[in-house]
Amino acid sequence: MTLLQIQNLDLSILGLKILSDVRFEVDRGEVVAVIGESGSGKSMTALAVMQLLPHGTDVNGSIRLDGEELLTKTEKQMCGVRGVDVGMVFQEPMTALNPVKTIGEQVAETVMIHTGASRAEALSVARETLSRVGLPEDRFPLTRYPHELSGGQRQRVVIAMAIALRPKLLIADEPTTALDVTTQAQIMALLKRLVDEDGMGLMLITHDLAVVADIADRIVIMKSGEVVEAGPAVQLFRSMQHPYSKALMAATSHHPVRKSPEVALHAVPVLEVRSVVREYALPRTSLFAKPGAFRAVDEVSLKIHKGENVGLVGESGCGKSTLTRAILALEGTQAGEIRVGGELVTTKAGASAAARRKMQVVFQDPYGSFNPRHKVRRLVTEPFYLMGREAPTGDALELRIAEALENVGLSSRDADKYIHEFSGGQRQRVAIARALITHPSLIILDEAVSALDVSIRAQILDLLADLSDRLDLSYLFISHDLSVVRAITDRVMVMKAGKIVETGETEAVFSNPQHEYTRQLLAATPDLEAALKRREIAAA
Amino acid sequence: MRAGGNASGPSRSLEPMAPYLLKRVISLVLSLLAASVVIFVVLQVVPGDPASYMLGMNAQPETVEALRQQMGLNDPIVWRYLSWVAGLTHGDFGVSYTYKVPTGELIAQRLWVSLPLALYALFLSTIIALPIGIISAAKRNSAADYGIMGVTQLGIAVPNFWFAMLLVLLFSITLRWFSAGGFPGWNAGFFVAMKALTLPAIALALPQASILARVMRSSLLDTLSEDYIRTARAKGLSRGQTLVRHAVRNAMIPVLTILGLQFSFLLAGAIIIENVFYLPGLGRLVFQGITQRDLIVVQSVVMLLVFAVILVTFLVDIAYAMVDPRLRGRA
Fold it and tell me: Taking the model in full, what pTM does it have?
């Protein structure tokens, strides 16, 4: 008997159809990857298995776990299934744990509520489970609170909570999307190990084909609430039938076409960072001791020339965001200097408007970086405050707005819309339009495509490549996603612990990394082709 | 509400709080000093000559001079401030000009009415507000929720002295369960005294409970949309268990803030209710002190109230750290 059998699953929320005729199976000891973009219904399918659906949800069809129908169970019966037969791990490790309870208590709770075990017994199960997921008690006492752990460690705690009672099925909804590549690789390895040890079924939900290429036994591809294609992993990757699957596959490894830039090496660089240091004061260890300092950016120097696209990669906490903030004059520095187009970004009088207008920035979050009460017209013209009296007005202003919007593939009519009227990808286009409007020579793209679906990401990457070619723009492209950096940049810098440890032509660095850390990063980066080859060799 | 995780016991959860506590204590002492300077300057220095202010315009120069001698007003200002503060530290508030008794005794008597009244009202308000706030949030958009929200709206809108008069009409005049006012003193017995404070405490608690219930509800609703609530449900906790074990404690921070503000208000702000029920409380004392220009009484009561407010703020800060471990490490 299959472990999880989903058949003819229809689901609608307040009359709006979310899932139609979803069907797939998960067997014991099997990893089934459910892949799709946002709105494909993959998370809703998982929540339907858990019966944790929003109010006003109407479900039809059948979800059987070990032969037992879940859809007809009462809420009370389902409480006995969740945590016991099915465990679930979510995407956001930073917020998925209760901040006011210790990790030991939270893992023990799963045991206590279901088995009626005593506190001491439950804590001993918690101790054992936490050590199984790689948090041994000698280094991670049960009395730790979530805020004392890193994102990857918190995700391990969430996994421990889900597997404490050795459920038959584990559902992991984008478990590594919010994590760094090396942490991602560790969490994936952990999940795979647990599946092998316990013979659990694992339903692994993700938007990223490459992440699951190594461990998935079977793949289910979803789009707009329907399963478009399903089959054994390697076979499905090698011979995709459905056009959507093919498009998804192509978008994952999309490489925008660029003219090779004519880099003006001898002209004044667009951006020059010279021996910049940024330190933060640490809390005093005692009342009288001098507070120590943490060097977030440690003597960093770099140059970006006109028309050049440069990537900056590194894991969270490496100092890339601090460096970005220093370049944007959002933060002071303790030593060194930063020049944009030859002008100091921060002078004695504060941030220099003249330098600032030569560079603009696009952030990750296409939802959070706009004031929802302003129209696009006002949003995209915000950078003009940097120009003071030289800012265009009247017809000249209208022309600039139209030009910026048309440059990013929107129309001048969009100027009178509000931001909620746009999709995620379009919002990121508006953000790019806002960056273009002052005709900058440098745009800083801070994780600018990280929150986008792969197909949208491919379009935005094409747009960026095209803009760079047409407008002779330079980019500083900051990302934790190495495959994207590889696709769009000419040069790449690898940052670790506040220092740039390796820099060079992108292809050279990727194909022949010199620094140990770069090698680690590359090894941890999911690579679809390489994974498939490994598996084919193993199968043969 | 527990102090820290009980997996660890109190010793482990309090020890990392030491730096936090130290900073809070330093801030408590500094606030008190700053407040005492401000009160002293406003009441003793700004009016010019406190003695002639207290005696009024028609006073004889000899009388004024005698009072100046008695109050030590001929000493240098800094000396006067220091001796006032020195007196405060061992309970010497000076002698009331109108009552001719040590202000300390006067305040102590009144405090024995006001403090129990404030605590009583706070207790009533908390035990009413927290459960109905929680029910309201748990049954969001139900008839119970709408009903509770409507009643609390009314509770905020109705002036408490008017509500107090209604209580007197119903319970004292019609039903004759409670006396309409006055305070028999604690010597008459604990329950007799508490009975006399019951109607005033209810009148004081109603608007406070209404506000607190609404804060509890909205804070809990925010908490219920957090990710860790979904995690708890995925572990197999029922809605009720999730609410009790995970949501309520996380929702307490705004509730504690409001509780702290309300206690300070109840201690000093009960003046109208004290008048409605003829209670000899602090509010009436300060009111009489002001009308009789008894600066010594006013200054002492104000200092006491400031001390109470700062102390309550300190206690609320400690409660924050007990509720939320993230606050313990920093200050």
Answer: 0.83
